Amino acid sequence: MFNWLTDFFRVRRDRLRPGAPHIERVAAHNSHVLNPPLDIHSARVYEGSPWIYVAINRIAEAGALAPLKVYRLEGEKRVGIDNHPLERLLSNPNPLTSRFELFEQTIGSLELQGNAYWFLAGDERGRPREIWLLRPDRVTIVPHERRIVAGYLYEIHGERIPLDAIEVLHFRRWHPDNDFYGLSPITAARGAVLSDRHMADWNRNTFGQDYGVPAGIVSIKDFISDTDFERLKREWRSNYGGAARRTAFLRGGAIEWQHIGLSHSDLDFLQGRRAQRDEILNIFGIPVGLVSENATEANAKVAERQFIERTLWPKLVRIAQKITQELLPFYGADLVAEYDDIRPTDMQARLAEIRTAYPLLSVNELRAEYFQLPPVEWGDAPVGAVPLETTLDSATKSVLDELAQWERFALNRLGEAETRPFEMTAVPDELAFEVSAGLMFAGDRAAVKSVFAEARAGLED
User: Fold this and answer.
1) Residues 143 and 230 both lie in one domain
2) How many domains does the chain have?
3) What is the tens place of the pLDDT at every residue in 169-180?
4) 141 and 281 both lie in a single domain
5) 246-251 contacts at long range (C-beta below 8 A, 24 or more positions apart)
6) What is the rounded distance in angstroms from the CA atom of residue 188 to the CA atom of residue 173?
7) Phi, psi for residue 234 in degrees, rounded to 5
8) Are residues 312 and 293 in the same domain?
9) What is the model's pTM?
């Protein structure tokens, strides 16, 4: 064996192989799997566990609200495409499903089953026309020795419907023990879910009819006849007993009460359920501060930020990159799908970063980098580098500001027969007279703007 391996690796490769040699073996190893290795009880767990329901719904609903956009790559830049056909398709994926429902169910399936599938129905040009979500428990992957996935089988009521690989978009979580299917978080949370369910069942049975444990024992130490024994039981139960909280009787000497049940405090019941809740939420990446009744406002804000940055954002990146890889090629090359960056920013750190960039970046560069604003004619110099002779004194700036207010005032009242005069405090009397005289003959908006433009030009001269 050692000699065989030595001979095999004796020749050193100087270039990469054209394909992966293990794919054929992987396909052969998984070819016998007819049904997906999914937990068929996941849906029941979702329906029966309140914390599973809360965790999945928080993630799915928050992810469904995030906007997804399509960009075109031009070198290192991403140029947004308004109203791209994929965006229009996602806004109305099929006659029965809205955009919110599509992404809610997709993210929910990933959290519940570890897999989510989109079936793509095409138009006459072969582009996607409709998107239908497939139930993961009905989908079986058919491996291929070269293409990795030959296709899919969708089974319903015993009928298996073959689907081509190009027709299905498969989202999946990482599974360390499977080559094709994703791993559900419920698998990791199974112990906590079962413990929480048993504790909830115990609590319900404690107060439910005919399922309560004996509350105690009435021991009659002195010997009594059967008739007296039955009579005593009837009288005790009619006054103190119940169908759910029964009392056990033992014959003996004097009558003695002995409590045998365990209280919620003895079992540390509430603390146990709280621990199960925290474990389940941590597995799904939900900070406890989002649901804790004792969380302060500061803790809740920190928890919300952690949820968006560490839980929700990676899930959105997974979906966007899968759409980029397998769905956008239908519309051409050099296209990417990306979610708007919904991660909260630290405003203090952002302001400090902007101040640090003042001597290094021009005004236009700052506008583009931090505020996504278009360039301006005067923005080629760094902040604070404008020559002093080009700056305006405070008096001139006050006059210009008041002229701008007067211009808006005149435009809003253009054509009115009578109007109150504009109150001036900074404009010199001579300039105010010239502007007023010009407004008397200004019959349209262009003429009004021309009057104020001449007034500003006179100030600059």
Assistant:
1) no
2) 4
3) 999 999 888 888
4) yes
5) 246/212, 246/214, 246/215, 247/214, 247/215, 247/216, 247/217, 247/218, 248/214, 248/216, 248/217, 248/218, 249/217, 249/218, 249/219, 249/220, 250/217, 250/218, 250/219, 250/220, 251/220, 251/223, 251/224
6) 13
7) -65, -45
8) yes
9) 0.65
